[in-house]
Amino acid sequence: MFSLFLCACRFMLSYHKIQIFENFVLINFSRPKIKKNLALPICSRYNALKPNRSRYNGGYLMNVSKDLIAASATPFILSILKENDNYGYAIIKKVKELSHDELVWSEGMLYPVLHRLEEKNFIESYWNTSDGSRKRKYYRIKEAGLVELEVQIKQWQLIHTALSKTWHQIINIRRNRLCLT
What we know:
The protein has helices at residues 2-12, 53-56, 66-83, 88-98, 107-119, 143-178, and strands at 15-20, 24-31, 34-41, 49-51, 60-62, 86-87, 123-129, 135-141. By secondary structure, it is α+β, with helices and mostly antiparallel strands. It has a 3-stranded antiparallel beta sheet with strand order 1-2-3, with no helix packed on it. Strands 6-8-7 form a 3-stranded antiparallel beta sheet. Strands 4-5 form a two-stranded antiparallel sheet. The longest helix has 36 residues, at 143-178. The two termini are 20 Å apart. Pfam families: PadR. It comes from Acetobacterium woodii (strain ATCC 29683 / DSM 1030 / JCM 2381 / KCTC 1655 / WB1).
């Protein structure tokens, strides 16, 4: 679909230069009296990118699948708890902060994962009153959780490396097919 779009641009419009970036395509049009650049997001046919004007002023945020969020929940939580003990809402805020507001977890998603990690003996919970306010249930990582975190880190690094190589090959093939300079 993407290459079909570029072919349409090639035959319907005169352009000077097309640059393919990781998340968007920049097309530099050079027609008489018109010199404009057009930046188009690269998105799947499932509309993975959606407008969010509140944050980027007309930009785009990624809509991450529930499966990917669920798969990354354990290493996220264990990594956050490795820094220091935390309560549920603080973990949700930390994930949001680390992802620059792109990953927004709900309590309904977080607490079942925390309970599962407790059952597996990776974390433990305790009640504490912070700053003289109400009691909160804090979570702390245990030794088994530190071991699991190291396993998770190695697994995610393996996945990241394999995907990066695959995507790099795809981008090179795409560039060679289009023969754009």
